[in-house]
Design brief:
The structure is a homodimer of 305-residue chains. By secondary structure, chain A is an alpha/beta fold. In chain A, the strands form 2 sheets. In chain A, strands 5-4-1-8-9-10-11-12-13 form a 9-stranded mixed sheet, with helices on both faces. Chains A and B meet through helix 7, strand 13, helix 9 and helix 11 of A and helix 7, strand 13, helix 9 and helix 11 of B.
Amino acid sequence: MSILVVGSVAIDSVETPFGVGENVLGGSATYFSTSASFFTDVNLVGIVGDDFPQEHIDFLKSRNIDLRGLVRESGKTFQWKGKYGFDLNEAQTLDTQLNVFQTFRPRIPAEYADTEYLILANIDPELQLEVLAQVRNPRVIACDTMNFWISSKPEVLKKVISKVDFFIINEGEARQLSGEVNLVKAARAILGMGAKNLIIKRGEYGVLLFTKDSIFAAPAYPLEKVFDPTGAGDTFAGGFMGYLANTGNVSEDGIRQAIIFGSVMASFNVEDFSLDRLRTLQYSEIDERYRSFKAMTHFEALQPN
Amino acid sequence: MSILVVGSVAIDSVETPFGVGENVLGGSATYFSTSASFFTDVNLVGIVGDDFPQEHIDFLKSRNIDLRGLVRESGKTFQWKGKYGFDLNEAQTLDTQLNVFQTFRPRIPAEYADTEYLILANIDPELQLEVLAQVRNPRVIACDTMNFWISSKPEVLKKVISKVDFFIINEGEARQLSGEVNLVKAARAILGMGAKNLIIKRGEYGVLLFTKDSIFAAPAYPLEKVFDPTGAGDTFAGGFMGYLANTGNVSEDGIRQAIIFGSVMASFNVEDFSLDRLRTLQYSEIDERYRSFKAMTHFEALQPN
């Protein structure tokens, strides 16, 4: 089953202690789509300026990503400049130029309106609502956001949250949104806002899935070389939703497997700048790392009393 | 099989955002012994002053902890005063009064010299070496330390590390000791110092076990109420070594189970001040939480290709 993703396509400049990536391909929808494309067909809705390099279009097409929803407008593409210290868990934003993204109003092409899998990547929650109004009855909706929307449009955001199956945010955002320091309390509060499930991303510490009545804890893959964490969260979400759409199995077992596939994709993505690692990634490597995750987390159950 | 633990017995005063514990029972050997006592017999070697309350002696005895190695000297017991902010992962030390602990020289009673399981809790690495010289041939040696010894006596500490089966430290200490920011590189460097296995504690994010050729990642139990993280690391180590000594199974499977039991014990301990939660803890609760850990981390393996 194909996925529809709505989000940003950007040109990033990133500095980490290990090097610099100048004017590289970025954006939440880009990372998400590329990651998901290893599992299923992806339809991308977004906007770029007339400066957007053809090589990036060619790359996305080479991943079989349908770009009929990618609008090109005169002006410059969204640009983000950021920096990471040795603590790679948090980026410092040096500059954001929204450019054509400033006036972006997502138009969902008619042929996408029946999508079964929808990801609302990090954009203005008003626009996320507009997207929801343009699709008929998706089977699975996932949604991301950021601190900026939590503080500026909490009520609109809560409307979005009440409509989604998977709300995917990081630890700090979960605390900010709920006003709770304790993560279990924060999760309970956010589920109380109507999200069916909540996935909390914790960077190098992995992710937690909170459902109505269970918790699943997945570690991150301990890597010796982390070059650039940019897009790790979107790559995670792409692998997660891609796997769900591929299998159609949205039981708790299926969801947990999808979380591991998401973690696998994120673990590859941070091994190089931008999404360069995904350019050479083979499916056999994904499979192998899934098995490593299994080996890394397995322990024996107690015998029943 | 019984365990020998050498470490501190203290009187703590602790402040957290959730309350205050004044002059409560503390110390690494105390937490360790109490936790291990749920799984096996424990022999404690340490020192207290003549002010040490009889009720604490009575409590330790009620846990079947053998106190023939607990020296009582005239003077005051080791006192520690600390404070936690909402980030419960790190304590701020307000005051340390070593008192009788200052001149502590561990004497291992002859009847303990054949111990098979030995834990060197956080004390001066010179003293840890003295303990090692007084025991014959332990099957399993575990060792903890702290930032203070890493910076003041790194060479002596490395001698200790080269002799232990499980070196158990926290994330920051692993980075400090190895000089590596990346945790996988840090672990490799520390294994290179001769520790057979390394356990890295990450507070609310769980623990990582590094062996020569594998990694095991265990989450912490997500708790809604964390009152006082003091002693969580020692309680973890107590459950870990206690379970190993109980089963005698030091295969990787056994070690992984022991790590989960350690995590279970730590998760209970932080639910109340000092080690008060362990005063009422029942073995059936430990068993039940182990099963929760299993449920919380389980996901399906891929079918073989």
